[in-house]
Amino acid sequence: MARGIMDLSSGTGTALLMLLGFTTHFYVLPRAEAVWLTIPSSGTKCVSEEIQANVVVLADYYVVTPEGPQPHTVSVKVTSPYGNNLHHNENVTQGQFAFTTAESGNYVACFWMDGKHQEEATVSLEWKTGISAKDWESVAKKEKIEGVELELRKLEGAVEAIHGYLIYLKDKEARMREVSERTNGRVAWFSTMSLGVCILVSVLQVWYLKRFFRKKKLI
């Protein structure tokens, strides 16, 4: 244990910290960046993300205040892959929603204006999922961890999230392969049946023509 503490105080410890910060930056932080959406005065603007089941989703949104006496207001609705209403708010300038996914698929958030405004509105949406939605400050205070230990905990969470997503992709690929194989089997059966019908029709045609020519005494 003492040996490990000594290593952390050396150049190897510095390299480890740099590696942890670099990995955490690319696996945790990018998924918490905000996006700006331009909402037309008439119509709807939607964003979606494919999320697996049992994942925490947390989002904050607000209307970017334009120059003018009256700020724009928007309405927002969030639905699950099965069409269930997860969040619905009308004529607001800001808000947030949080939920835990019950099924895998595309979760959609749609924004629109009430039609009273003639100009477009800009909405800032910060959509966090999985490890990005976790409150690491509360975790650090509760478990009394900081520094390298906290970064290791973040890295562990990121690895678990990636592992879970890989399992989700594997299961999805297996389901798609099963559907593809079942479809190929049906196509092969249909092709065989079509070929059998064509052969039967050809035999019947030959039999009818031979019978017809014999009646006419042409053969």
Brief summary:
46% of the residues lie in helices and 27% in strands. It has helices spanning 2-8, 11-27, 136-143, 148-215, and strands spanning 34-39, 44-51, 56-63, 74-79, 85-92, 94-100, 105-112, 121-129.
Task: Give a quick set of tags describing it.
single chain; 219 residues; alpha+beta; 4-stranded antiparallel beta sheet; 4 helices; 8 strands; 46% helix; 27% strand; elongated; disordered N terminus
How does this model look, in words?
The chain has 219 residues and is α+β, with helices and mostly antiparallel strands. The chain is 46% helix and 27% strand. It has four helices and eight strands. It has helices at residues 2-8, 11-27, 136-143, 148-215; strands at 34-39, 44-51, 56-63, 74-79, 85-92, 94-100, 105-112, 121-129. It has a four-stranded antiparallel β-sheet with strand order 1-8-3-6, with no helix packed on it. A four-stranded antiparallel β-sheet has the order 2-7-4-5, with no helix packed on it. β4 (74-79) and β5 (85-92) form a beta hairpin. The longest helix is centred in the C-terminal third of the chain and has 68 residues, at 148-215. The chain is elongated, with a radius of gyration of 31 Å. Mean pLDDT is 79; it is low at 1-31.
